[in-house]
Design goal:
Elements: H1 3-28, H2 38-47, E1 53-54, H3 55-62, H4 66-78, E2 82-86, E3 94-98, H5 100-121, H6 126-151
Antiparallel strand pairs: 1-3, 2-3
Length: 152
């Protein structure tokens, strides 16, 4: 690959990384959901709509400490997006689940991502999608390796 192509790819990635959170926030944080942040939205996504999740499970999904997550959970609970309850089986465990309002914002965020994926793959054939997936997996591995190096 030539240096011109590498430069173009680098500029594209930098631009995407710099804009993705801002663009997502503008698209997802609508008038109806103006009382939450993009970070709150990702916490709601990590909680999910299935069964109640333990705080440590949610924290692990988000790569944050339980202490950090606890602060955000208080705000989401006050706003009516989540409910926190102690586990009946183990009182040390706090389980979190989405309220109806939380489920509504969950699906709103999910729709944004579904539309984003449609836009990405709309003109790709099966082989091109496999190449794109491989590229993104390689990028993910690069980030994982950098994270390991920073931890040591």
């Amino acid at each position: 690959m030539g240096s011109s192509t590498n430069r173009e790819l680098n500029e594209l990635l930098v631009k995407l990384f710099n804009n993705v959170m801002d663009i997502e926030e503008k698209a997802v944080i609508t008038e109806e959901f103006k009382d939450i942040t993009n970070n709150d939205m990702h916490i709601i996504e990590a909680i999910g709509i299935d069964e109640p999740q333990g705080m440590s499970v949610i924290a692990k999904k988000l790569s944050v400490t339980v202490g950090t997550l606890t602060t955000n959970m208080g705000s989401l609970e006050e706003k009516g997006y989540i409910i926190r309850e102690r586990s009946a089986a183990d009182k040390r465990v706090v389980l979190v689940e989405l309220t109806e309002k939380g489920r509504k914002v969950f699906f709103h965020h999910k729709d944004f991502h579904k539309n984003m994926i449609k836009a990405i793959i709309k003109e790709l054939n099966e082989e091109e999608m496999k190449v794109m997936i491989k590229c993104l997996l390689n990028l993910g591995e690069f980030f994982k390796q950098l994270e390991k190096e920073q931890e040591s």
